[in-house]
Amino acid sequence: MNTGTMDLLEIVIVVLLSSAFSLGGGAGPIAVIQDRWVGNGLLSPELFAWALALGYLSPGPKAGFIAGVGYYVYGLPGAAAAVVGLVLASWIGAAGVSYSYAKLAPVIKLISLPAGFIIAGMIFVSAWNLMGPMDLSIIEYAAVAIVALLVGWRNVDAVVVVLGSALLGVVWWLV
After folding, report:
1. Closest CA to 11 of 103, 89, 98, 82
2. Number of neighbouring beta carbons within 10 Å of residue 92
3. Could you tell me what percent of the chain has a pLDDT over 70?
4. Distance CA 26, CA 65 (A)
5. 52-61 residue pLDDT tens
6. Residue 43: how many other CB atoms lie within 10 Å
7. What is the pTM of this model?
8. What is the CA radius of gyration of the chain?
């Protein structure tokens, strides 16, 4: 633990900014923390790796390692400061999303149907490109279309579709 050149406010600010501008969990702050604290010698690479390993092995969000990093650089107050930075980033992000959603709700409602068709078209093109080299017969194309219509029309459970497909595949293979 090296408390000589770091204060709690710096821990809060670094964690807050690195978490606020990252998406998808705790992987975003890794580079910032390495550059800011490991690269400057305030945190040894071994302790950083240890905090990262413990954070990823323990259950819960993958950003849990940040509290360990805070502990290693400033003790228990550092861990608390790191958690404050994480919570503030989440709180500010959630407040921004809530405010923006309330303002953008009419626009989202307006574009949701066309966006659904665009996504369906993208999935269709991807599936068609994957399916092209398979050299399916017209009967197999028809079977896929019938299954897709039944799933969409009757909202059939995925287990029924998979088991039915496996059964049809075995029958088709035996024939």
Report:
1. 82
2. 13
3. 93
4. 8
5. 999 888 887 8
6. 22
7. 0.58
8. 26
